[in-house]
Amino acid sequence: MIVINGENKVFGRLSSEIAEKLLKYNEKVVVVNARKVIISGNYESIFERFFERTERGGKGNPRNNPKYPRYPDRLIKRGVRGMLPRNPRGALVLKNLIVHIDVPENFNKEIPASVKLKNMKYLTLEEISKRLGAKYSN
Predict the structure, then answer these.
(1) At a CB cut-off of 8 Å and minimum separation 6, what does 81 contact?
(2) How far apart are CA 49 and CA 12, in angstroms?
(3) What fold characterizes domain 2-132?
(4) Residues 6 or more apart from 19 whose CB is under 8 A from it?
(5) How far does CA 15 lie from the centroid of its chain?
């Protein structure tokens, strides 16, 4: 089992790192601190991009519209899914991914240290999720 601390890691780079480990080592990958993963850039453009995805609609039945997650753990799983191959093997290795919003008690000793951030504009997945309407307790 590979444990990855998501604190202060960039969303896209973390997703590609997870996808690579899932395909290469073929074992379970556990991500903790999903709410502290960051997306760098301008605040308004980041939120606008995520809000547009969640509010996308269609002409027909509203139940058949595309669904996009609002919670940090599901956002990471969706990002990793986009970086895996679209074949049965990609679907199989995605089942080996476990993402936690916070740090569960049984992983407290196994977590690697996080990286310090320099001065840059960013939003955490927690802030994005709260603005999109996700309701979870810290």
Answers:
(1) 90, 94
(2) 14
(3) Ribosomal Protein L13p; Chain: A; (3.90.1180)
(4) 80, 83, 84
(5) 7
